[in-house]
Write a structure and sequence with these properties.
Blueprint (H helix, E strand, L loop, with lengths): L1 E7 L5 H12 L6 E6 L5 H5 L9 H11 L8 H13 E3 L4 E4 L10 H15 L4 E6 L4 H4 L8 E6 L3 H16 L6 E9 L2 H14 L2 E7 L2 H9 L11 H21 L2
Pfam families: CbiA
Protein name: AAA family ATPase
Length: about 260
C-alpha cells in the first residue's frame, strides 16, 4: 500500500492535483482510495462524482456518537464499520472515495475517533494506493485519524504565504515524526522561469525535492466556471501531461516498494 498525502495552503491547487493523481493512477489499478480530508470537500467536484457521495465520514461519526449508548452490548466497531462500508464509501468507476467532512462538534469524540482509526486501518489494507487531499497543516495526521503517509506532496503557488505554509508543513512533519519515505514540493500556476528558480532555491534551503512546476492553465478556470471536473482537461494540455508524469512517478515508486 502506498499513501500519498497532498497538502498546501488553501487555494494553491492541491485538490486539482489530488484529483488528477486519482484519475491517472486509477487507470492502472482499481485498488485506489481517494480521501477528501479537507473540510471544504472539493475533491468530489474535481473528480466529477459529487452526486455519488451519500454521507461523509463525519456524519457517520456523529450518528454513532448520538446512538452508541443505545446500542447496549452490540459490537460498536462492527456497527461503525458497517455504516462506513454501506454509506460513506463512494464506489466510483475505477476507484473508491471517502469524504471526511467537517470537524466534529462539541463534546468528547475520543472513543468514536479511536474506533474510527481502527476501522480505517482495516479498510485501507484493501487498497494499493491511498490518495489524500489533506487540509493545510496535516491536522488529520496530528490527530492520527489517518496514519502517516508514505509520501507528502506540498503544493505551492508563487505567493509568500504559499511558501510559508510549505515550510510549516515540512517542520510539522518532522515534529510529528511522520514515517514518510519522502516529501516533495510542486509549484502550481507558475508563469515564469524566475518563479521556478525562486521556488527551487526555497526548496533547497528547507530540504525538499521539487517534483515539477505546473503552468497556469486557463482551461482549469473555464472548467470550474462551467461546473465541470478538472479530470476533463484535454490530453493536449501541458498541465494534464505534467500531472500524469507525476502520477507515473508514484506508480514506479509503488512498483519498486512491492518488489523488494
Amino acid at each position: 500500500m502506498t499513501v500519498i498525502a497532498v497538502t498546501g495552503k488553501g487555494g494553491t491547487g492541491k485538490t486539482i492535483l489530488s484529483a488528477l493523481l486519482t484519475h491517472f493512477i486509477s487507470q492502472t489499478t482499481s485498488k485506489v482510495l481517494a480521501v477528501d480530508a479537507d473540510p471544504d470537500s472539493n475533491l468530489p467536484d474535481a473528480l466529477g462524482v459529487a452526486e455519488l457521495v451519500e454521507k461523509t465520514l463525519g456524519e457517520v461519526r456523529e450518528t454513532f456518537q448520538v446512538s452508541r449508548d443505545e446500542m447496549g452490548t452490540a459490537n460498536k466497531e462492527q456497527w461503525l464499520e458497517g455504516r462506513i462500508y454501506g454509506e460513506a464509501i463512494c464506489e466510483c468507476d475505477n476507484y473508491d472515495l471517502i469524504v471526511m467532512g467537517r470537524p466534529e462538534g462539541e463534546g468528547c469524540y475520543c472513543y468514536a475517533n479511536s474506533l474510527l482509526r481502527g476501522v480505517l486501518r482495516k479498510l485501507m489494507r484493501h487498497y494499493e494506493y491511498i490518495i489524500i487531499d489533506s487540509e493545510a497543516g496535516l491536522e488529520h495526521f496530528s490527530r492520527k485519524t489517518i496514519d502517516s503517509a508514505d509520501y507528502i506532496v506540498v503544493v505551492t503557488d508563487m505567493s509568500k504565504k504559499g511558501l510559508a505554509t510549505a515550510k510549516r508543513i515540512k517542520e510539522l512533519s518532522e515534529e510529528l515524526d511522520l514515517k514518510f519515505k519522502d516529501i516533495f514540493l510542486v509549484g502550481n500556476r507558475i508563469t515564469s522561469k524566475e518563479a521556478e528558480e525562486t521556488i527551487r532555491k526555497f526548496a533547497d534551503e528547507i530540504g525538499m525535492k521539487v517534483l515539477d512546476f505546473l503552468p497556469f492553465d486557463e482551461k482549469i478556470a473555464e472548467l470550474d466556471l462551467k461546473g465541470e471536473p478538472v479530470v476533463n482537461l484535454p490530453e493536449s494540455s501541458e498541465y494534464y501531461q505534467k500531472a500524469r508524469k507525476i502520477a507515473e512517478m508514484f506508480i514506479e515508486l509503488h512498483a519498486k516498494s512491492t518488489t523488494k
